[in-house]
Design brief:
The chain starts with 7 loop residues before the first helix and ends in a 20-residue tail after the last helix. Strands 1, 11, 12, 13, 14, 15, 16, 17 and 18 form a 9-stranded mixed sheet that branches. 43% of the residues are buried. It is 30% helix and 21% strand. It has helices at 8-18, 20-34, 50-65, 86-94, 104-112, 129-138, 147-159, 201-210, 229-250, 277-287, 304-307, 339-343, 449-455, and strands at 44-49, 74-79, 98-101, 120-122, 141-144, 167-172, 194-195, 215-219, 257-259, 297-300, 311-323, 326-331, 352-355, 366-372, 381-389, 396-400, 420-426, 438-444. It has 13 helices and 18 strands.
Length: 475
């Protein structure tokens, strides 16, 4: 089933009356239990707050509308890698958000969701010729990553003179990194884009644009989680200054659009949504005022910040035990879902909420305990020595802020199944019974063991047997 869209004013009024996102989450957890989504056969599920997603999309649109000149062309393209789910992409498309894709698979998802070609941007440091050719045939925007890719585009553009794809070049402003090195994409040695501060690179970019009138965009991205907003703004300013230099050299405005990337960090410490899009947009306006005077079109590629706060992983406590005097709640949510958290908890801590077996917020005494996942290695912990209401067998744990890069990027350790994902929304008039006021829609069905076998080579079970003619024999 689907979830009907409500009038924005009615939804906002109800959210204020009902306590906002945290209260909606509590009601959704309770409803998931009452309505039988969490079961013996499905002891871990994921939930998506549809109203929350819509609110974030609206906040993004409004933030940039407030700082740009009237009639400025602005495309907000969701970074599909953050939550590669067709229903999510379709919902965002309904809310005026396009798609930034980085692989043939992500492009296929965006197309399946109905995202128009003109609202789609292709980025990747390793595009094949076939990918580039398809992009030009479809008319989607392409950002070339390096001189060799630009050389491929030279030939493809010559063969497709009537293509409608805006084409840009990604540049690395080399302004530095944030606290998470793996997500800092504007360091001196980043693998992305043309390194502007390397000897001769800036002059090469100007010459490359002079030789290619069809090269009309610049793209930059400084990083995401752990990257200060001021550093992101410096990266954007570097790209803007380069665009001004190119246009001056050409004698006209050849570079007409700047792709600012995404990367707004997410607050994983509380329910507060900070920093906001409005804060970042105002900082960009103050740092790069010429960017917003109407001469340049803009593209953004936000991902985590649009979805993270609106996802919850809900899992049953299968067993409660202790070791060395510390309680341990063994759950069905671990490394297969929260891979980054399990392997790098200092960079990716998750808030964990405790509920009783009926889905109500737990009122048990708070004690320090471990919340463990099901994978067969000692480090599979959602939380270690965390003070929470004491969890018992049959209770529920909720991993919060997991709407991006958690339940969508599955880690198949121990061949653990991908969980079902359900979007939820609340009925304007509630319901007569507990849990009736929340409606669920299936976003992704739970993976079956038959599907696990099939994707693990089941149809080819005999492929490696020595008596098969398909394998060479010893002579």
């Amino acid at each position: 089933m689907g979830l009907n869209r409500e009038n924005d004013r009615d939804r906002d009024d109800r959210n204020v009356r009902a306590g906002g996102a945290p209260a909606r989450r509590d009601r959704a957890v309770r409803a998931a239990v009452v309505q039988g989504l969490l079961t013996e056969e499905q002891p871990v599920i994921a939930l998506l707050d549809v109203d929350g997603i819509r609110a974030s999309a609206a906040a993004l649109r409004t933030a940039f509308a407030e700082v740009t000149a009237p009639d400025t062309a602005v495309l907000h393209a969701f970074a599909v890698k953050a939550t590669p789910l067709v229903p999510v992409l379709r919902l965002l498309n309904d809310e005026g958000i396009g798609a930034e894709v980085a692989s043939p698979g992500e492009l296929a998802l965006a197309r399946a969701a109905g995202v128009p070609a003109e609202h789609t941007v292709l980025d990747s440091p390793a595009k094949t010729t076939a990918e580039l050719r398809e992009a030009l045939a479809l008319g989607i925007a392409v950002n070339a990553d390096n001189p060799q890719e630009l050389g491929r585009l030279d030939a493809l553009v010559a063969d497709a003179p009537g293509h409608r794809s805006p084409i840009g070049l990604r540049v690395n402003p080399q302004v530095g990194g944030g606290s998470i090195g793996a997500l800092s994409t504007a360091t001196a040695t980043s693998k992305f884009g043309v390194a502007l501060r390397d000897e001769g690179s800036r002059a090469w970019v100007v010459r490359a644009c002079l030789a290619r009138p069809w090269l009309t965009r610049l793209h930059t991205h400084t990083g995401s989680q752990g990257v200060p907003l001021e550093l992101m703004a410096r990266g954007v300013r570097a790209a803007y200054e380069l665009a001004e230099e190119i246009n001056a050299a050409v004698g006209r405005q050849q570079i007409d659009t700047l792709d600012l990337g995404g990367g707004l960090p997410v607050n994983f410490a509380s329910d507060e949504e900070t920093p906001t899009y409005a804060t970042y947009a105002r900082l960009l306006r103050d740092t790069v005022p010429g960017l917003f005077d109407g001469r340049y079109g803009l593209v953004t590629e936000f991902g985590r910040s649009l979805l993270a706060k609106h996802g919850t992983v809900l899992a049953r406590v299968e067993y409660a035990k202790s070791a060395g005097g510390r309680p341990i709640a063994v759950t069905h949510a671990g490394a297969q879902l929260a891979t980054r958290t399990v392997y790098d908890p200092a960079s990716w801590p998750l808030r964990v909420a405790a509920y009783d077996a009926e889905g109500r917020p737990s009122t048990a005494q708070a004690v320090a305990q471990d919340v463990a996942g099901p994978a067969c290695f000692a480090g599979d912990l959602l939380a270690e020595n965390r003070t929470l209401p004491l969890l018992g067998q049959g209770d529920l744990v909720a991993a919060l802020d997991t709407g991006a890069y958690y339940f969508s990027n599955h880690y198949a350790y121990n061949s653990l199944a991908r969980p079902g994902i359900y979007g939820f929304a609340e009925s304007p008039d509630g319901g007569d019974n507990v849990g009736d006021g929340v409606r669920f829609a299936t976003v992704r069905t739970p993976q079956t063991v038959e599907e696990i076998v099939a994707e693990s080579g089941g149809p080819h079970a005999d492929a490696l047997r020595a008596d098969r003619e398909s394998l060479p024999r010893d002579r």
